[in-house]
Amino acid sequence: MGYNTPLGQDIANLFNNTIIGNENNSTCSLINITIANNKNLINPGIHGPLIVNLSESASYITNSIIWGNTSKKIFDSLTSTPSKISYSLIQGLASDPSNHILDGTSNLPVFADTTAGDFQLTPSSPAIDVGLNDSLIHAVALYIPTAAGGGLDLAGTPRIKEGIIDLGAYEFSSSSPLPVALKDFSGSLKNGVAELTWESGVEEELKSYLVEHSADGKSFQQLTLVKPTGSGSHYSYKVLQPAGVAYYRLKMTDNSEKVASSSIVKLVQNSPQGLLLYPNPAKNNINIRTSIAGKLLIYNATGSFIKAVTLKAGVNKIDISALSTGVYFGMTGGQRLKFVKE
């Protein structure tokens, strides 16, 4: 709690509920912090901004949790230097995927016990494995060069478990292993469809598998929930992948809400000039993804010309509902594509 200014500390008074203040062209970077349960005890009915930035100052917040405070407002005196918040969870603030801000409007349990002052993460906390590793790694390397990797959290636990850092001051750590062991988790990509397969060892009190997807290997979104069917089971899940590169992982939860994550599977499209047709086979529509505009010429299996379709750069949806069932070929930019009409 204090003011940050290049002219020295404490030249301005904190007021009402302000936790952090910047003044006179100063900046404050907050990485992997937790700001929780702050309120104005002197004037309970008056709540100023949580963070105040005056005179071209700004705050930069990453990998952090702002929760349970009487105010969540960040005040910037001038819009030419707005504050920047990313990879964070702020109570009352809706999700912002462009800045990797999680949905703070839900009632999901975030901390173990805020009443007792325990701000460690619960097993089902949305703040687990959703941060930006580089943000803390670079700060640690700059200011604590003797520390390894992402350093330690507030409890002295090593940071960045399971490949992706958690939000807030604590890294989640389960006291006991999850009662399932994956024998294998892998993926393959064919005709724009990703197929994920895995095999379980012993499944004891396992509640679910959650299949997740990411465009960058850092921020993951839910695809589907798969119920376990017993020890030694084989599972598979298929999903369209129009993107050139995608990342997948499993989150496994047991009946006591302990959570563990699998290794990350990366799937890359091997298509010339970004050219891709999916799904295949198809019934009513096919999608053509191409990096350049052009024309698609469609022929049937005997080589008879059927129709021409103009393509724009990007994804093109093409109606094939009027075609008879069978094999067809498409030609564009000197490349041949084959698809089956069901």
Automatic annotation (TrEMBL):
InterPro entries: Choice_anch_Q_dom, Ig-like_fold, Pectin_lyas_fold, Pectin_lyase_fold/virulence, Secre_tail. Transmembrane segments: none annotated. Pfam families: Por_Secre_tail (PF18962). It comes from the Bacteria. Residues 277-329 form the Secretion system C-terminal sorting domain. This is T9SS type A sorting domain-containing protein.
